[in-house]
Request: fold
Amino acid sequence: MDFNLTEEQQQIRDEVRKVCREFPDTYWREVDKQRGYPDAFVKKLTELGWLAALIPEEYGGSGLGITEGSIILAEINRSGGSATACHAQMYTMGTLLRHGSAEQKKRYLPKIATGELRLQAFGVTEPNAGSETTRIETTATKRGDKYVIKGEKIFISRAQESDLMLLLARTTPYDELKDKTRGLSVFIVDMRNAKGKLEIKPLDIMINHHTNALFFDGLEVPAENLIGEEGMGFRYIIDGWNAERILVAAEAIGDGRWFVERAANYAKERVVFDRPIGANQGIQFPIAQAYARIEAADLVRFQAATKFDRKERCGAEANMAKLLASEAAWEAANACLNTHGGYGFAAEYDVERKFRETRLLTIAPVSNNLVLAFLAQHVLGMPKSY
Ligand SMILES: Cc1cc2nc3c(=O)[nH]c(=O)nc-3n(C[C@H](O)[C@H](O)[C@H](O)COP(=O)(O)OP(=O)(O)OC[C@H]3O[C@@H](n4cnc5c(N)ncnc54)[C@H](O)[C@@H]3O)c2cc1C
Reply:
């Protein structure tokens, strides 16, 4: 058992840290205020190859593992930024890598690695299905050498900042299926050719997340863009969930560390009643408690990432890492806000922005209730609760 980062991992962390220093609080604050997209930051990360970390070297990436990917994303959030703007460019291609044909991989992966093609939209969630993904209603109907897509998606992030989207759609009606996990298929959709057949409607939400409702009105997708076998899409998507949960856990860890550092520093400096507020247990204990929980969650994140990279089963660890890290980050966010008192609400302290941003991680990409249901059923053997 070795709890230390390797030299290479430390180097990755330090280099990403250096890049992030070029994008200080004021940068992220302004992007948030404008509801803009952090173009310059994403461009820089892309140029330096960090978003191609998980793409194998033969396709132009750096062939690193989830452990290293998680170190990169954690560092972005620890610096005060938000990895959600670009994390999907790192991992959405995993479905293509694992289940795509040799021809598809050759066609897309090298361009995704350079950033020439942005694959950072992932179309799963629908208004009527919610967390029950096997109930999605968007259909892909085969007509000759094309599939015709009709339906609606909700909360699809970065659709306007992406060239390609990985889309989950129904290829067999729900009622005709014996096994309800079948009948869904995954496609690569080129959104550059979708004008008039795909409406993208930005959603006004609590955070600056570039998330949208999508309306498909007979969008044609070449049959050659089907990934893997028709009807197996849900399985393929599930295969990517562990990676996503580990990476999101790392982002939460990064947030948590940011909150703890900011809170502790402020608590040392802010003097009220003639002494630093951090001298009061009511202020210092919640920060210390959050710190301990973040460090604990981080161990589970590294355990999950290590197992993932060794190709061992890691569903339990990946889910626990996501659960523990998102809750620890939220606890740290509250401790940090309380420590700052009224100033916590002032945009110039950045606490309120990070507070809003980290709250998402308990709900998306999967809500923690669903994580608990997974643990209860699949790890502890209790009855299915839904
Ligand atoms: C900012 C943002 C970005 C997103 N980006 C994307 C994206 O890019 N692509 C994409 O496909 N989706 C995306 N999502 C969607 C996200 O994955 C879903 O919101 C999330 O999975 C929850 O689904 P829902 O909102 O439909 O909640 P619902 O399924 O309606 O659930 C509502 C509440 O009920 C709880 N609940 C439901 N069923 C049960 C049960 N059986 N037991 C206990 N509790 C239950 C849930 O935990 C939740 O708290 C995004 C969401 C947000 C907010």
